Structure formats: structure tokens, C-alpha cells
Amino acid sequence: MNKSLLRKIKVGIVGGTGYTGVELLRILVRHPLVEISVITSRKESGIAVDQLYPNLRKHINLKFSSPEDGDLTKCDVVFFATPHGVAMSQAYNLINHGVKVIDLAADFRLKNVDVFEEWYKIPHACPEILAMSEYGLVEINRSKLLNVNVVGNPGCYPTTVLLGLAPLLQSEQIFIDLNRIIADCKSGISGAGKKLESSSLFAESADNFRAYGVSGHRHHPEIVSQLEIMSGKKINLIFVPHLVPMIRGMFSTIYTKILPKYRDIDFQKIFEDRYKDEYFVDVMPSGNFPDTRSVRGSNTIRISVNRINDEDLVILVAQDNLVKGAAGQAVQNMNLIFGFSEVIGLEHVAILP
Amino acid sequence: MNKSLLRKIKVGIVGGTGYTGVELLRILVRHPLVEISVITSRKESGIAVDQLYPNLRKHINLKFSSPEDGDLTKCDVVFFATPHGVAMSQAYNLINHGVKVIDLAADFRLKNVDVFEEWYKIPHACPEILAMSEYGLVEINRSKLLNVNVVGNPGCYPTTVLLGLAPLLQSEQIFIDLNRIIADCKSGISGAGKKLESSSLFAESADNFRAYGVSGHRHHPEIVSQLEIMSGKKINLIFVPHLVPMIRGMFSTIYTKILPKYRDIDFQKIFEDRYKDEYFVDVMPSGNFPDTRSVRGSNTIRISVNRINDEDLVILVAQDNLVKGAAGQAVQNMNLIFGFSEVIGLEHVAILP
Amino acid sequence: MNKSLLRKIKVGIVGGTGYTGVELLRILVRHPLVEISVITSRKESGIAVDQLYPNLRKHINLKFSSPEDGDLTKCDVVFFATPHGVAMSQAYNLINHGVKVIDLAADFRLKNVDVFEEWYKIPHACPEILAMSEYGLVEINRSKLLNVNVVGNPGCYPTTVLLGLAPLLQSEQIFIDLNRIIADCKSGISGAGKKLESSSLFAESADNFRAYGVSGHRHHPEIVSQLEIMSGKKINLIFVPHLVPMIRGMFSTIYTKILPKYRDIDFQKIFEDRYKDEYFVDVMPSGNFPDTRSVRGSNTIRISVNRINDEDLVILVAQDNLVKGAAGQAVQNMNLIFGFSEVIGLEHVAILP
Amino acid sequence: MNKSLLRKIKVGIVGGTGYTGVELLRILVRHPLVEISVITSRKESGIAVDQLYPNLRKHINLKFSSPEDGDLTKCDVVFFATPHGVAMSQAYNLINHGVKVIDLAADFRLKNVDVFEEWYKIPHACPEILAMSEYGLVEINRSKLLNVNVVGNPGCYPTTVLLGLAPLLQSEQIFIDLNRIIADCKSGISGAGKKLESSSLFAESADNFRAYGVSGHRHHPEIVSQLEIMSGKKINLIFVPHLVPMIRGMFSTIYTKILPKYRDIDFQKIFEDRYKDEYFVDVMPSGNFPDTRSVRGSNTIRISVNRINDEDLVILVAQDNLVKGAAGQAVQNMNLIFGFSEVIGLEHVAILP
User: Gene Ontology cellular component (chains A, B, C, D) (predicted)?
Assistant: First the structure.
């Protein structure tokens, strides 16, 4: 990766017009070791990026290319901020040209092709690349990610649930009953993306709270498969997502049952020890609860560990769904892969109020 | 109109799935003198109304009909909660069957066909019916509306600006400089309707404020033409609409210059006298300002009269854009036409907080 | 109760300036069988009610009395929309004068005085009246409430959790594991009342989501005690409340484990049967989820029954915290006690959008 | 100012707990040439800053000092993020110790002591320092600010109106009628600060729009006095502020009348020329309108110039009230005074969505 020491790396973004795309841009235009070379959008090709996203005026001087014209093979790394199915169709060509691929969609999140095809209703285009790819949850998989060519950037809900549970499942010890995990998760509306759907209209979603996907959500198999990798055991997870009338932010309330033999453990300390070297994971002091605004616009995920009684441990997790839950985490992966300091370009202080 | 004394009137609604449609339903299902007979929607035909709008569960037991099947000619009155152009294509047939027509779109708002066609980009289908129709601003046109067959229900912005200015322009006296009227208007997002447009998404419009239509908005000619009818004079109006991140509500700040000879007038009294018999127009006591929440869900429009200095009079007007600015005003017209008490079915107290 | 047939009943409200107070007013000013006689407020005494709450202009013509002056003993019923501790200090005198008392605070919610004193940190002023009072959850306790003098109107969270669980616990059958009930509850900000607290400021709570009271909330013993009365058994409940950036609305996601012997039961039918005669409880059709906006401003509570798998049943419950969760339920109790139709004055259609 | 070349400057903040205080912190903790030495707060003294503002966790390791203990005289610059009246009581001592003072309140905004005392109802403590101070609107007063000891940082509304009008009033030419300027201004709720006032509660201000200060607002004399300095003429300004249910953001719609002799002028070009070298002022391309979200969290102010007709020019201005309208502008002043690049530490991209 020494090339990164000599020059800025060239970055391509496929599908730069959605919310994860513009968030990648917000972060990358200020990243000191990066040059944005290509941004593609079929629909907006020829349009200046800052025409569509005026917050980027004076920060970027680039037009959207059509997917055909944008020469992605000359990039060092390409981010896919696209619907599911796009990255896998282009990954083979890119890695053949030595280009790293970071997919913000789901093409490389589920190692089991059958599970992928069941939930995403499309055949997987490159199972052999999937097999070589890694799941980009840096705090869990750091060592595996160092030399990888293709990263499946985690889903937003999975990021909160996996980092919220990891200290309880990893290493040799499993502290909780794997059959009794409930994740009650809440997301801001930007999680639904910029698609034109009636339910995402302001007049439909403001001043309102609702559950959705109760009978099944694609992030369920993603969470379960990673928890099973972590623990080496079968997991039974109940997962109910909800929508909150706020633009950004995700909050997960995770209910676990402590196994009888671990009821004397200081779980606050378990979490603090596990994450003490992680810049982006903040274990709150005991008795302090996270809120989503304290992470708004930042790559930080805040966790609070709550011992309700002898048996019950409730983990609260807050993140910005577009940053640690998507674009920020993708840049964190890029930093890691190219040997940069992991935090570079990601030191934003959350905007509060 | 004696038929209304003997039985409930039969109401039809064309286009019941948009926001003015569901608001008509919210009001009419509780109106004691009305029976909703037909609701049409091409897209939702066959679907139960309360499936689309669960707030109506237990209040209505009707399905959307296709426009072809719904037998509107058997109704006493039909409301058009449709895009511009629909009502005028059906008005002739309906009034031939003795059915009253109340159009919540713009087909019968502009008496001048040329102006209509310039702003709405469609030919007017029935200029002769337009000529017989009346502009349904009850507080201004009550006597003309009593025996009318077709009502053009006013636009939301025009309702606020016209009722805010009427006391200054009517009768023999014109108190203000007709060349110096500025209406700075602000609307909640529901004013944009339920159309799928990117700018109406929660993540685009929440926590945001912006102007739009600065170079021209269809309500401008509507306001001007009505002001000119009121005053019998040429009017010069600057009108800038804005969008506020709230679901409902409309607020207009109207800047006027008092003519020199009227600078000793007590304008608070002028307004109070003008509206003392109007149930739905509330002139606030001097020094009290309206806010949109105090009219949320009600048919009330609140007005405050502010003498800034010798020359300047600033009128503040607040209404619920979906009620007094649309469906409530339409029902008020219906009540008037059928000889009911004007307030029946419209006595809702605004929801606060 | 025949007096109610002859004349409107006289209603007093103590503490009419908070959110439950103004909501009582919104409902009662339109209630056809009620006359509001007295509203007290120490802080606002002498001020016209509609000066403080302009939504009530033209609907009420009354001033706030000081608590000393307002003659509550001449009322038929007095609502306490006050902080905890006020109703119990006045209940004795009122019921001695034949006045019914409906307390919207917690003074008569917990039958066990010790539990009350532990959670509310004040001695109970009238244990003997507490013993005679009833918990005003009409759908559960209707028959007991008919002849009662003092009603403890349920808390907002308890209303959702109790009505969400009642069909699973009542009668001879207990369908679920009483040691594994989790209620993840979410409330709009009005639930915190009109108190001046930093955390209730717009700039602190908008665009934000957070948990609170994780280590203990006063509604926990209220829910548990009522569940134990219903089931006749010991209950283990985990309850975590959260705050949602919306004004009104409450949503509870309740996780239960079906007992092995009942895994063939059709729980949708259990709920529909239990509530088929309840006007205010709406069991949604299978596959439909409630949202808070579909109950905004109405006394309806919507419930959806979700069988996630063999073992897990997730109940979703939505209500308006100020109506069914407070003032509406209080009026429902009043209707019941005075022999009125239970729904009179409470037929509001929810405001949507 | 060469000391700044050798070491980071030491910064003190008085009153670090309000919204302008925490926003100063958000900016300054990432400013590469600054070391935050002291933060005072009477109320929170002894508390860790990141305990009160968890968004600053890992970014700052400092406690609030009591005003008596914090040694401000050792700082290079002290920001006052305090109520009006505090800075003027301490300015003399600080500048005697060679400390620069930047006041974010109004103590040094109005050069005329009588006007100050009329509007702020307190005597001015140091008229002689006021006389030496400068109004910190960098884009207008840059040269005067270079060697100043005390800066009156502009109010939020004045910043928008002054930068929106400056190109029309400066130099030898006055393009507009000085008797016909109307500023209709809209602010997010954070503009009211963190004070505990009923009207700032979420349940009072969400989903609501209202005007306030119609009969007079302290920013009116500030705007007028600066416009009169710019133009050398008497100004007649109508200014009506409003509150928008969003946390941050300010939007001003400014109505002007073009003088007859200038009706052939290309005002778009006038604005572009005036601001072509200003990093923080963005003149939007013709036909593009600003919105507040496109400046959220950034120090940019966006302006659009709209020729409505021959006579009428409408200027739209958007900024983040806490950044360019307060803390960001204060840091811009600091950068200028200490000879830093004006943009350093202020290059944030606005958060969108």
C-alpha cells in the first residue's frame, strides 16, 4: 500500500445521488489523502454534483458521469452507493484491475449465497468473489480486512446490534442466553433512502411513529449470521425495526438474559475493556444513556450497559445511520485498507443541538 | 333546498385519496346531515377507504369506486379533490342532473379563461359553466353563493391573503396603497399534496426552510383577480411562498402601506367590525399574534392587525391549509348552498398541543 | 344517576393549564351533556382560559379561578389534572359533598400504599379512600367503575401495555410466560408535560431519540400491579420507555413468549373476540400495523397481534397519550359513571395527515 | 500578532453552556491553531464539559470553572457566550492584560449608547471601550477589524439582512429606495437559546409557525444602524421575525424597490462581483434558491438575487444561525485578528440531509 504514501488515492463512487452517496461526498471532499476522481449516476449524468447537492458548493468541482463513461478502473478504490445487485456485477472487472471495492449495499454481506438469494430475490453474480470478501465491521474484523479486495459494508441496524452484543459473545466466553436476544431498533427516515415512496413523505412520516418489517427484515439474517460467526453457536434473535420522525439517527434497545453463572460479572467493565482502544466506539459511563443527537454527523457509536436486575442486561446503542451506519464506516474501511490512520477524515464532532 | 330538511344529502367525492380528499372524509363522516355515497379513485378502486386511511376505521364502511362506476349523478353534491382539469370535464353532466359541484382544484377559480390557460397550461373545457360559477370564499361572496351550481373553492394561500386584506379594500373605502402590497406566505408540507416528489420527502423537507415559486406561482393571479374584484382597481402584489417543516398550517405576513388620509383610523376596529358575525374568522385582540397550531384541525382563520408605525400596517393570518384552506371551506360552501347552518360539522376545536 | 337525564352535569377541573388540562377542555367544551363550571389554576387565576389557549377562543367563556375560590363542591364531578399529591388532599371533602373525583395523576393508581410511597416519595393522604377507589381502565374494570366515587385514571404507558396484554392473561387462561414480558415503549414529548425542563426544549428533543428511566419508572409498578390483579400471578416485566420527537403519540412494542401448550392458538382471534364490543379498542387486521398518527387526537387505541414464530408473539399498541392515555380516558370514565353512552363526546376522527 | 506563528493561541470562553457556547466548542476543539484553556460557567462549575455535552466526548478534557476561578487574563482571546451585559463588565480588565475580547452578545453591537440602553434596559458599563470596538461583520468591516481589541459579534438576523443588502448600498451607489425595505425573517428555535421558556418547549413549538416581536425586536436598531453606516443615509426598515419548527437555520426574505434609474442593472452580477472573494458568502446561480439545510452546521451564507419585475428585487438569504449567525462568525473574527487564514477551522461541509 505504499502508493498511498506518495500521492492521494483516487476514489470512484458509483451511484452518488442517494443519501449514502452524498454522505460519502461530504466526508471525502475533506479527506486529506483522497482525490475524488469519478462519480457516476445514470439519471444525473452531466449535472454538476453541487447543483444537486448545494451543501457541496465550493467543495467539489465534478460532474456526474454516466456509468458507461466513468472510468472506474483507474481508481484505487470504488464505493458502491447503489441498490443491491450493482456492485456484484462490476466487482470482478474492478478487482482484476487492482481496484478495491467497498459495497455499501448488501451484495457482500451474507456469506451464504442461498440466504442472500432468498432475501434479496436475485441470483448472486459472483459467489467466488463473495467467498473472498470480508464483512466490513472494523471493530470486529480488523485483521481480516487489512488485505482484502472486496468489502461488504455492514447494514445500519446490524452495526448497532453487533457492536452492542460483541463483548457478550466473543472470545471464549458467552455471557448471555443465545435463545433470548431481542433487538428493538429505531431508525430515522433517511434510512429509507431517497426513493420516492409514499411512506417517506414528510406529511406521512412526521409527527408519527410506527413499526415495519415485523414479519421479516433483510437485516435479520445479516445480524444472525454475524452473531453466529462471533459465537460459533446457533442464535435466536427477535428483531423489530421502527421509524422515528427524525432525519438521521438510529437507536437500538437490546434485551439479553445473563447466564446464571455470570451474574456476578461487571458488564460495564467488560464493555469498557473490549472497546478501550476503539476511537469510534464510546462506552458511556454507568448511568449515562446515549441519544442520537450526540452522534449526529459523526462516526461515533455510543453504547450504554444497563443491568436491570440479576438476570437482565439491556444494551442501548446510538449511531448516525448515514455515518457509522453507512458512509463513515465505509471510509473507515478504506482508511484501514490503505494503511491510513483509521480516524483520518472522520474526526467530526457531532452537531448538537 | 327543502329536500335537505327531509333527509341527509348524498355526497360524492371524486379523488378521495389525496390529502384534501381524506380531510373531506374526516369532516363529512361526522357531519350529521350528510351521507357519503360515492368515493372514486382510479388507483385504489375496490379498496376499502379505511384500509388506506386507518384513522377512518369504524367511521366509514365504503370502498373506492373506479371513476367509471361511481354513480355521481345520483348525488346531491360532488366534491372534486382532484388535480386541475378533472372537475371541468364532468361539471356539465353533473349540473344537468341537478348535482351541485364543488371543485377543490383551480378549474373554477379564475374567471378569465386566458389567465387560466396561461397558468394551468390546459384549455378550459367549459367556459360557459365557469361564467356561471362562483368563487367560494364565503365570507366575501356569501350572497352570490346561495344559489350557485358550481363553486370554485379558493386556493389555500388566496384564502389567507384575501381574508387578511378584505377589510382594507371593500366597501367604498380603500385604505391602503394598492401598489405596495407584499404577501410573504408560509405553508406546511401537506400543501404540496401526496404526490411523490423528492422535495416532499421527510429527509428533504424536515429541519429545513426554503422559498419556492419566487418567479411565479399559480395563486398569484388568483389573489390578484379577487383583490381587483373587491376593490374595483388594478392591484400590484408581490407574493413569495415558502415551505415550513410542519405537516399542516399556513401563515401569511402581509405588508401594506396606509394611505395618508387614513392614518388616524383604528384598523383593529375596522377588522373586528368587518368580521364580527363570522364564526370562522377570529380577529385576535390587539397585541396577540396567531400561530398555526391554534387552528390545527379546525376551520378557523385567525387574523392579527399590527400598526407598526404611521404608515405601515402588517396583517398576520393563520389557518390550517387543509381545513379553512381546502376541505373545511368546501364543506362550509356545501352548508351554505344546502341551507344548513354554516358551522354544522365544522365546530372542531383545534388540537393544541 | 338520574340527575344526568334532567340537566347537563357540572364539571370542575383542577389544574387546567397543563397538557392534560387543556385536552380535557378540548373534549369537554364539545361534550353535549356537560357544563364546565370551574377551572382552577393558582398561577393563572383571573386569566381567561382562551387567553392561555387560543384554540379555545369562541368555545369557552371562563376564567381560571384560584384553587381557594373555585367552588368545586357544587360540581357533579371534578377532574384533577394536577401533579401527584393534589387529588388525594381534596378527595375526602369532595366525595363528602357527593362529588365524583377523577384523578389524572397517580394518587389512586396503586392500591398498595407502601408501593405508592416508595415510588412517589410522599405519604398517601387518604388510604381509606384509595381502598374504595377504582383503577379507571374501563375495558378491564367496567363493572367495578359503575358506582365508584373516586377513579384513578390510568397512566399513559400502562394503558397501552395493559390493553395490549389483557387478552393473554385474563379469564381462566394465561397464554404466555409471565416471566418473559418485555415492553419497549415510546412516547411523544408532550408526555413530559408542560414543565420547564431543559430536556423538553425543542432544540434538545427534536431530531433526537433516546431512552430514559431505564433503571426504574413509576409506571412499572402500576403496570405490574394491574397485570398481577388480572392474572392472579406474579409477573416479571422489563419496561424501557423512550422519547420520540413528536408532540403526541405513544407506541408500545410488547414481546411475549407463548406457553408451549398454546402454540396452536389463533391469537388474532383471541384479541378480536376480547375487544369486539369495545368502541375504543381497534384490533387491526392481521398484517396491518398501527401508527401513532392514525390515532392522533382520538380516543382510539390500535393493537396489532404478530406471531413471529412458534414461540414469539409481538403485540404493537398505538394511542394518543393525551387522549386515550389521559384526558379521553378520563372522560370515558365520566361517561360510564354518569350513565351516558361511553362514546359521547369522544367520537373524534384522528387527524391524518 | 506574530506570537500566533510560534504557538497555538489560548482561548477562553465565558458562559460555555448555552448553544453559542457549545457551538464555539464544536468548532474550536478541531481548530488546529487553538488551545482551549478556560471555560467558565457559574452553574456547571466543576462539571466536565463532555458530561454536559456528550457530543464532545473524546474531543475535550476540561471542566467548567466558576467565573471567579477561571484565569481569563492569561488567554490570548476570550469569547463571551453570555447574556447581554457580561462582556462589558469584564472587557476593561481583559484588554488591559492584552487579551482580545469577542462578545457574542449585544454589548458592542450598537455604537450609540442611548440606543443600546433603550433597547437593552441596562446602562452601558464602558462607553469608551464601545467607541474603540468594531462590529464584527468581516465581509463588510474586514480592514477595521484587523487591529481591534474588542469585537461586537453581529446578531443572527442582522448578519443575513446586512449581507443581503450590502451590495445594494455600498460604494458610491445606492440602488434601492431606502424607505421601502422589508425584511421578513425566519429563525429556527435554537435562536431562542437554552433558556427555560414555555414557548421553547417542543410541544409548544413543533409543528407550529408564528411571528413574534412584531412591535419591536432588538435586532431592528442593530440592522438599521449598520445600514445607515453603510449607506450614509437614513433608513426605513420593516422587520418581522418568525419562528420555524427546526433546530437550526435562518432564512430572510428581503423586499426592495429598485430606484428608477437603476432598472437596467444586472443585479445578479452586482452581487457576484461584490462577494467573489468571500469564501463564506455564496451567491447562488440565477434561478437557484437557498435552503437552510444546505448551510446546516457550516459557516456559509447563501444568497439568491431575484428580479421579480421592473421595480422589485427580492433577496433570499440562508445561514445557520448558530454558525455564521453566531459562533462561526466569532471564530472568523478570531482568525482575522490573529492573522490566520480566515477559513481555518471553518471549512465544514453542511450536513445534508
Answer: cytoplasm
